[in-house]
Amino acid sequence: MVDRSPQKKSRRQALAATGGAVGGVLLAASPLFDGAAGAAASVASEHHHGHLPVHDIEEIVEAEGSVSGGVLSIGISRDDIGDVKGPMGVTFTPAFEVDGTLTFQPLHGGRAFFNGDLALKVDETNPVIDAIIENDLVFQAFHQHYDDMDPQIWFIHFRGTGTPRKLARSVRKVLAATSTPLPQTPPEHPTTSLDPDRLAAILHGDAEVGDEGVVTVTVPRNDTIVVDGIQVSPEANISTVIEIKPLDFVGHVAAVAPDFSLRSDEIQRVVATMRKDAFHVGCLYNQETAETPQLYFAHMVKVGEPYVLAHEIRRALDHTRSA
User: Fold this and answer.
1) How many CB atoms lie within 10 A of CB 182?
2) What's residue 26's pLDDT?
3) Taking a C-beta distance cutoff of 8 angstroms, is the pair 210, 190 a contact?
4) In this structure, is residue 187 part of a structural domain?
5) pLDDT for the residue 111
6) Residue range of the domain that includes 83
7) Taking burial as the number of CB atoms within 10 A of a residue's CB, which of 31, 55, 64, 244 is the most buried?
8) pLDDT of amino acid 194
9) What is the distance between the alpha carbons of residues 234 and 224, in angstroms, rounded to a whole number?
10) Running along the chain, 323 residues long, what does each successive block of 10 average in pLDDT?
11) Is 216 within the bounds of a domain?
12) Are 161 and 116 in contact (CB under 8 A)?
């Protein structure tokens, strides 16, 4: 494996190193969608203020994360599930698509907004739903990300608002309804045969390197999204996320799995663009309730030359209100 850890830190890595500072939301409209900036400016920006007790949250949840834009993001891998056969002959792994994300966004008055999802075995789904309800969190979505998975993995999305430590304790009780191995820590010195900076530049996002050389590029939305009256940060699990896993030792072949964040008027053009380039479309679903405007998410996958595939994904992102 070639050492291709980024020469410069991404925004998320840099903020994690400093404990995290509260950042602003991107409110500028895409040139494709006139008038979005005016609508965005009319929404109260509650997430501009507040501070998260990052260390305490991580200790309670028993998993470490990173901070970007003031939002703590914790990846939860399902190492106990192992390899999963997927469409197009792709093997999903705990570092690639068999994982979830827990995000904590600071609010006014010492409160926080939690938004997250978990990858689950079928026998865990209803116990997790029960744990969400019993711990005063909101059950939002229940779905598959891909067809033709063996074993079939399910995903449940949930959210909540309250004090950060109380939210973290509630989330930890939900995790206890699964066999997820804890504690979890990110790799200290991850390497990859891919070029993270090149992928980030093509996709117009931030890149991170994780286990198995997987590069994750996050591309934020430019519009304002409100969930249950709260203006949600692009970092709070509502951005487009692209996972890229090298399949050789020189970075010439990779499995690429974009998870598009879409408004209803963006779906048709994005899906048509991706199908024209022979991406396998795995799903289309909502993952938040009480959301304005409603977002839809579509997971896709394809194998090929990673930078060519990144350009194909970027062409589809050009049809969205994204960076």
Assistant:
1) 12
2) 28
3) yes
4) yes
5) 98
6) 11-317
7) 244
8) 98
9) 9
10) 44 34 30 36 45 97 96 98 97 98 97 98 98 98 96 98 98 98 96 98 98 98 97 98 97 98 98 98 98 98 98 98 94
11) yes
12) no
Strand-strand pairing, 280-281 and 295-304: antiparallel
Half-sphere exposure of 197 (CA within 13 A, CB side): 7
- Burial label for 263, CB within 10 Å (0-12, 13-18, 19+), is middle
- Cα 137 to Cα 161: distance, rounded to the nearest angstrom: 8
pLDDT of 84: 98
- Determine the Cα–Cα distance for residues 24 and 132; give it in Å rounded to an integer: 30
CA-nearest of 31, 33, 21, 99 to 66 is 21
CA distance 88 to 73: 30
Beta strands 254-263; 240-246: pairing state = antiparallel
**CA pseudo-torsion sign 120, 74, 225, 47:** positive
From CA 269, how far away is CA 272, in angstroms rounded? 5
Q: Which residues of 64-73 are buried (b: 16+ CB within 10 A; e: fewer)?
A: bbbbbbbbbb
Q: How high is the pLDDT of residue 270?
A: 98
Pairwise CA distance, residues 75 & 38, whole Å: 34
Q: Is 151 inside any structural domain?
A: yes
The packing angle between helices 125-134 and 164-175, to 10°, is 150
Could you give the number of structural domains in the chain?
1
- Tell me whether residue 6 is in a domain: no
